TrEMBL record:
This is Inner-membrane translocator. The chain crosses the membrane at residues 21-41, 47-65, 72-92, 98-117, 124-143, 173-193, 223-241, 261-285, 297-320. Pfam families: BPD_transp_2 (PF02653). One of its GO terms (cellular component) is plasma membrane.
Amino acid sequence: MTRLTNTVRPSWRESLADRRATRWVAGIAVAAAAVAIPFNASPYTNLQLTLVIALAVAIRGIDVLTGYAGQVTLGQSAFFGIGAYVGAYGFAHGWPAVGGLLLAPILCAVAGVIVAIPAVRLRGFAFGVITLALPVVVVPLAIRLEGVTGGAVGLAVSTISAPSWSGLADDQWQYLLVLAIGAVMFLLARNLLAGRVGRALTLIRTSEIAASSVGIPVQRYKILAFAIASAYGGVAGWLYLTAVRYIGVDSLALTLSISMLVALVVGGVRSPLGCVIGAAFYILVPNITDRATPGRSALFFGVALLIVLLMVPGGISGALRAAWSRLIMTRRPAESIPAAPAEQRVIT
């Protein structure tokens, strides 16, 4: 016996449109909530959230180099500190704020290119070993250059205050300023990685031989990725100084680079949300753990890293994406999915 049945298949175009609409709505809601936070929070909370944004920018830079290009870096703290010192020097000598903000990433990008040129011939962890020397060298150098950096004592400067016409407190104004700059940096990274540069870096991470075989200049793109990561570290250092109004040699230390790399893994690589989650993990979690077990935040960092590597390899953001996808699929029954024209199939 032969009969005809209709096979109904969902329209991928309509499904993609639904996803985009959901992302836009979620993005607008998150942006509105982020802008409203400083008006309903204490100055301490605003400071903590401002530091989260600043660290998220630095971690996003690491994500470009490690998550996309596949090159492990342990030198981000050096560029973070350089950006902060450039900002402190500018504020102390009466520069316009925008001057320091522009000079910090430029100097860090140039320094990153100088370091990357001899290092790009190496791969993976060998590349990371080269970057390990950056904070090791920069910390004693900053101590010796006491006239510029303040030496071991550091520099305390007056940064940005809220203008009188805004009617805002300093902590509110700084939060909104750092939020705006951080959003611009994340948008720039998104647009850059969504195009040819992102595709080239992804192929380099997968196989440098395959990338070379299709005409991609591997070393040039690795230098570019390192320069981008360095520039993001410089911007993050300037944002950090704006909020804290102090910079010391601790911000150049190797432990900060390791902590930022761990935060990226915990939050999730190749994900803007993962960078924000990782920054929040680094800034906020120690405040909570120190209340229960003072001085053991490093132990908690290690335990969290092991849990993520063993149970959630994609990081917290990857787990959230997977949970959201399952939730959408379970809440959308098959008959409600938009269908393309029916296709006839013969069953015997």
